Amino acid sequence: MTSSAAVEAMTMYTYSELMAEFRRAEDWRYDPWGSAMSVLFDLCDRLYHRDGETPAEWHYQPGISGPALEPDSYWFEIFRDTSSAVLITFGHTLHRYIERLRMAGRDY
Description:
With 108 residues, the protein is mainly α. The chain has helices at 3-9, 15-25, 32-51, 76-80, 84-103. Helix 3 (32-51) runs antiparallel to helix 5.
């Protein structure tokens, strides 16, 4: 079993659970754009580290030393224990939310 396949086999979090966790854990009511961007950055780092790519429309580019996987991040273990397919679906939701906020002038 490849590393990616092993991660897929141990999926513990669903899309619904990630959405509930975002609503519960993030400061999205007070800083929706910053909260969503922060979570999407962590998600992109995990996905790129695992699969070597992220959806092009997210415009993610890892730093020169590679993705910045932060063990102190709230999302580190959650994203580690979530399949790539679920991460991509959650990431698309975050990306759409960020775009809506930007179009409404709520970014900075």
